[in-house]
Design a protein that fits this description.
Strand order of the largest sheet: 1-28-27-26
Radius of gyration: 25 Å
Number of strands: 28
Shape: globular
Number of helices: 4
Length: 436
């Protein structure tokens, strides 16, 4: 064998050895094992989903039967061999420990209607996970965002009227004030508008954000807005210089969920998978930062009868419904919802919560509190549910969906007149007469 042949043989052998060699560190997995599913998760886009049956089959064939469920972003190329447990002659055949005795037992489910009592068409509603296109006022008026327009639907009379139409862009978020007279409107251009619903005229235009509006929340005269610029702005609508607070650098991505409790404690959720608890509207730093979720947190809602209990829901890569003690920052309970969570409302009389979901089942789920045992699933929507809105007495829930329908579900019993759902119901009705 001559020298050139020997060198070629050694080079080919080295290439084979290089292909079989593991290029990862002893503790850090190789980035080359990041699958297509992992790349989808890293993009943090909750709007990704199969558009039709063909895409669904293609997704399962390419990404596996579990699709986006329980898939890791990084994985080891050489999996460790699972060791079989050694046979033990003292194996426990029966145990009646204290832990097993305290596990919640199934409770007989009450009768939950499996079909909506009313279905309305909503042509033009935007299929966007991060939007909040529907809100129900304390005066029984439902505001609905259809692309660049906002319509008002009187739930009692059934009459519908057009409130506004943007010259450009879309309406992304709607939120009524506590007394139900004024509506805040978030836009894709980053502006927040305040409208007098009865007079059908615009009162204010609040600017300052550098991206589309993702969430709005009221506490008396203070309006909080979250945006794609990862900032939360505090607006005092009574004064000309409305921007009284600017929270930047806390969330690292799109702020897509905001909600106040009756004490003025604010919860904010973002596309950075975190939830921040703010003690009051003027707090400069969060009281707690909750990092249990592994996907965007848009759905969050305070418990109406326990003001420091917060319910949150995660996106496609997480699918968890969590209950928190906001005072201590402690996780109380969690459950797998089997789909991305897009909205949460509470039932006062039954002590339950209802969640809305997107990919992959597009269902509503009813949960017992505080065990988070699932009581029922309500199906009927053929597209991603976008958000939930609840009637003033708490009995009816309106679900908006990408299938361009609004469905009304009789899920809960009416609450007492002095215990209506939602935050800030005790705010004085004259608080916003000074909007300027």
């Amino acid at each position: 064998m001559d020298a050139s042949t020997a060198a070629r043989f050694n080079l080919e052998k080295r290439r084979v050895d290089d292909e079989n060699a593991c290029m990862s560190d002893r503790l850090v997995p190789s980035r080359g094992t990041c699958s297509s599913t992992g790349h989808l998760k890293l993009e943090r886009d909750e709007n990704w989903a199969p558009r039709n049956e063909y895409h669904e089959v293609l997704s399962k064939n390419v990404l596996g039967q579990e699709s986006l469920n329980n898939m890791k972003v990084l994985s080891y190329k050489r999996k460790p061999i699972r060791q079989e447990a050694a046979q033990n002659q003292f194996k426990v055949l029966f145990s009646n420990s204290r832990d097993s005795a305290t596990k919640p037992r199934p409770i007989a489910n009450r009768v939950v209607p499996q079909s909506p009592m009313k279905v309305l068409d909503a042509p033009g509603i935007v299929d966007d996970f991060y939007s909040h296109p529907v809100d129900w006022s304390s005066t029984n008026i439902i505001a609905v965002a259809l692309s660049e327009m906002v319509f008002l639907f009187d739930a009692q009379s059934g009459q519908t009227e057009k409130l506004l139409s943007l010259p450009s862009g879309n309406v992304t978020t709607l939120r009524w004030t506590a007394e139900g007279a004024h509506l805040s409107v978030g836009t894709s251009s980053g502006e927040v508008q305040i409208w007098d619903a009865s007079a059908q005229r615009q009162l204010r235009n609040l600017r300052g954000h550098g991206g589309r509006i993702g969430a709005l929340a009221w506490h008396q005269h203070v309006l909080s807005s979250g945006s794609a610029d990862a900032e939360i702005h505090q607006h005092d609508v009574r004064v000309r210089e409305h921007l009284i607070g600017r929270r930047a650098g806390v969330h690292a991505d799109f702020v897509c969920g905001l909600d106040y409790n009756t004490d003025g404690m604010l919860a904010s959720g973002g596309n950075d998978n975190s939830v921040c608890i703010w003690e009051n509207p003027m707090s400069s730093s969060p009281l707690h930062t909750l990092t249990e979720h592994s996907a965007a947190v848009k759905a969050l809602k305070w418990c109406p009868w326990q003001r420091h209990v917060l319910a949150t829901g995660g996106g496609t890569a997480d699918r968890q419904v969590c209950l928190w003690n906001a005072s201590s920052g402690r996780l109380l309970m969690s459950a797998d919802a089997e789909s991305q969570v897009t909205g949460i409302v509470w039932g006062m009389q039954e002590k339950e919560l209802l969640t809305a979901h997107g990919y992959s089942r597009n269902q509503l789920s009813l949960w017992k509190y505080p065990s988070l045992c699932k009581a029922a699933d309500l199906e009927g929507h053929t597209g991603r549910l976008l958000c939930l809105a609840q009637s003033p007495d708490g009995s009816l829930v309106c679900s908006s969906s990408a299938d361009e329908t609004l469905r009304f579900w009789q899920v809960f019993s009416p609450a007492a007149a002095n215990a209506k759902h939602g935050s800030n119901r005790t705010a004085p009705k004259s608080i916003l007469k000074t909007i300027r």
